[in-house]
């Protein structure tokens, strides 16, 4: 697989003519967005002053309408630019990593797969996503996409409220060992907050989860908490080598990582709390930081096959 | 309610809690040992086939093969203790390791399909055994901690619980296994 620096080279060399064209589009778009935004805000302020501040309920409704309509308008304005960016920048980047990978900007990992992973146990009421990549890397099936899973709540006034269960990158790949049960690895928040004794006790009392598995790798145990249906199988999956690799992966991603081993697959959810692979509008596409975000996120996702050695299949799985 | 009664009830609850936690720790050790036993048996079942296949070639290592066969029959005896099983496992692991190293000296044997098959099976079972050992060691550590730490140690003493032995994990097993090397 190509290295991050090789991909950065590809971004700046091969994609440069396209980036230059997109950069002009971006500047025009930014100008338009600022102009329309100002005009739009002005109209709302006028409506608002016409009605008066006294009616606070009305104020909330107008504020909601302002943000709702504004978001819609923003999406409408940026649609063409976004589509072009995805087809001309993200897709070639994916193909540069591996030609056999397929990219579809409007598709995402299915809700069934997300729920099967059991990483987030609450009911999903709204599910969306984009930027789906799938294919085979060195014989290992992999797919990933941006996902946003939300849950509906009723507030005290009976109005619907949405809260985010997960927002970020969701990766599914074939695992290289056979297993029957379920093993789930979550970021360790209890032990970090309450210390080993109370935190450990709290973890063991987590009702929604299977048995707590204490791992024999101190650094891994500090970052993660493991639940499994089978104490032995959890350790069969999480060899010392894999624990090290998962730790390296977590440190590289710099975001909370949730991992589960269910069915034949490894599921990984990386909580970025934002929509990835979207074109930058207020920063230049040629900025190193912007470029690195696209390149390193793609490299991180596609790189798990190599990083976790998922291609080194056990002989009975070949 | 008199204070003394409340104190008595609280003490009873604490005692029950301690008692149950000790029993559950002991049962966890036993449960996991059953799992260890299953994978160990799987490996013992491979031994006759392995010995039959390699004995034709390995004239110099006869004693090694005999030893491994003898260890297997010892392990298959009924009524052997967990501690003995742990000891036998360590001996079998080292004997099988020596056989596998010796195989390298016989090019015909190395290329033999049956031997290759056995080698692969053995590697997979070794991984399962290693996982089972780690699970067992964790359960035993929890159990040993409970019977030695205050206040559960008083209860454990009264219940006649004693320390259990763990599997010694050989340092080489902690190293990253290069699967590619193994399957060459």
Q: Assign the CATH class of chain B.
A: Mainly Alpha
Uncertain segments of chain B:
172-184
Oligomer: heterodimer
H and E order of chain B: HHHHHHHH
> How confident overall, as mean pLDDT of chain A?
89
SSE topology string of chain A: HHHEHEEEEHEHEHHEEHH
How would you classify the helix and strand content of chain B by structural class?
Answer: mainly alpha
Mean pLDDT of chain B: 85
Assigned CATH architecture of chain B = Up-down Bundle
Helix content of chain A: 40-55%
| Major sheet details of chain B | none
Number of strands of chain A: 9
Radius of gyration of chain B: 23 Å
Instruction: Please report the distance between the alpha carbons of the first and last residues of chain B.
Output: 76 Å
| Structure classification of chain A | alpha+beta
Distance linking N and C termini of chain A? 22 Å
For CATH, the homologous superfamily of chain B is named as LemA-like domain
**Strand-residue proportion of chain A:** 15-25%
What share of the residues of chain B lie within helices? over 70%
Helix segment count of chain A?
A: 10
Main β-sheet of chain A, in a few words? 9 strands, antiparallel
In a few lines, what is going on in this structure?
The complex is a heterodimer of chains A (318) and B (184). Chain A is an alpha+beta fold and 318 residues long.
Features of this protein?
heterodimer, A: 318 residues, alpha+beta, 49% helix, 22% strand, B: mainly alpha, de novo design (two linked rop proteins)
Task: Report on the architecture of this protein.
The complex is a heterodimer of chains A (318) and B (184). Chain A has one domain. Chain A has a nine-stranded antiparallel β-sheet. Chain A is globular. In chain A, β8 and β9 (265-270) form a beta hairpin. Chain A has ten helices and nine strands. With 318 residues, chain A is α+β, with helices and mostly antiparallel strands. By secondary structure, chain B is mainly α. Chain B has one domain (3-182): Up-down Bundle (de novo design (two linked rop proteins)), CATH 1.20.1440. Chain B is 79% helix and 0% strand. The longest helix of chain B has 53 residues, at 3-55. The N and C termini of chain B lie far apart (76 Å). Chain A binds chain B through residues 177, 214, 216, 231-236, 239-241, 244, 309, 312, 314-316, and chain B through 32, 35-36, 39, 120, 123-124, 127-128, 130-132, 134-135, 137-139, 142, 174, 176-177, 179-180, 183.
């Amino acid at each position: 697989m190509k290295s991050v620096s090789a991909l950065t080279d590809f971004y700046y060399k091969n994609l440069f003519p396209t980036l230059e064209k997109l950069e002009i589009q971006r500047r025009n778009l930014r100008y338009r967005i600022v102009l329309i935004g100002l005009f739009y805000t002005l109209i709302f302020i006028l409506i608002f002053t016409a009605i008066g501040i006294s009616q606070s309920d009305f104020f909330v409704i107008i504020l909601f309408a302002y943000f709702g309509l504004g978001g819609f308008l923003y999406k409408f304005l940026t649609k063409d630019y976004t589509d072009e960016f995805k087809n001309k920048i993200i897709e070639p980047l994916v193909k540069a990593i591996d030609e056999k990978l397929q990219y579809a900007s409007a598709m995402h990992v299915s809700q069934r797969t997300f729920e099967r992973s059991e990483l987030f146990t609450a009911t999903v009421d709204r599910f969306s996503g984009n930027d789906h990549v799938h294919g085979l890397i060195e014989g290992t099936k992999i797919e990933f996409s941006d996902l946003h899973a939300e849950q509906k709540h009723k507030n005290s006034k009976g109005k619907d409220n949405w809260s985010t269960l997960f927002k970020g990158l969701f990766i599914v790949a074939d695992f290289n060992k056979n297993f029957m049960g379920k093993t789930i690895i979550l970021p360790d928040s209890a032990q970090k907050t309450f210390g080993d004794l109370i935190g450990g006790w709290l973890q063991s009392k987590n009702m929604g989860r299977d048995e707590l598995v204490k791992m024999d790798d101190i650094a891994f145990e500090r970052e993660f908490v493991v639940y499994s249906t089978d104490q032995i199988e959890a350790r069969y999956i999480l060899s010392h080598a894999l624990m090290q690799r998962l730790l390296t992966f977590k440190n590289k991603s710099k975001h909370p990582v949730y991992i589960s081993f269910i069915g034949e697959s490894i599921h990984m959810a990386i909580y970025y709390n934002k929509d990835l692979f979207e074109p930058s509008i207020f920063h230049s596409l040629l900025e190193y930081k912007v470029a690195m975000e696209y390149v390193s996120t793609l490299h991180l996702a596609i790189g798990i096959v190599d990083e976790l050695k998922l291609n080194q299949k056990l002989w009975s799985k070949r | 309610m008199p204070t003394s009664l409340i104190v008595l009830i609280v003490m009873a609850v604490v005692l029950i809690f301690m008692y149950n936690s000790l029993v559950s720790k002991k049962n966890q050790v036993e449960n996991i040992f059953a799992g260890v036993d299953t994978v160990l048996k799987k490996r013992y079942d491979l031994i006759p086939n392995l010995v039959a296949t390699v004995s034709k070639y390995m004239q110099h290592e006869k004693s090694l093969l005999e030893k491994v066969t003898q260890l297997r029959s010892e392990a298959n005896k009924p009524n052997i203790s967990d501690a003995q099983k742990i000891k036998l496992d360590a001996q079998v692991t080292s004997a099988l390791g020596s056989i596998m190293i010796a195989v390298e000296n016989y090019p015909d044997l190395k290329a033999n399909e049956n031997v290759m098959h056995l080698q692969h099976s053995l590697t997979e079972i070794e991984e399962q055994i290693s996982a089972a050992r780690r699970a067992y060691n964790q359960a035993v550590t929890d159990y040993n901690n409970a019977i030695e730490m205050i206040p559960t140690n008083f209860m454990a003493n009264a219940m006649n619980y004693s320390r259990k032995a763990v599997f010694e994990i050989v340092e080489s097993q902690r190293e990253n296994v290069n699967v590619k090397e193994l399957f060459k």
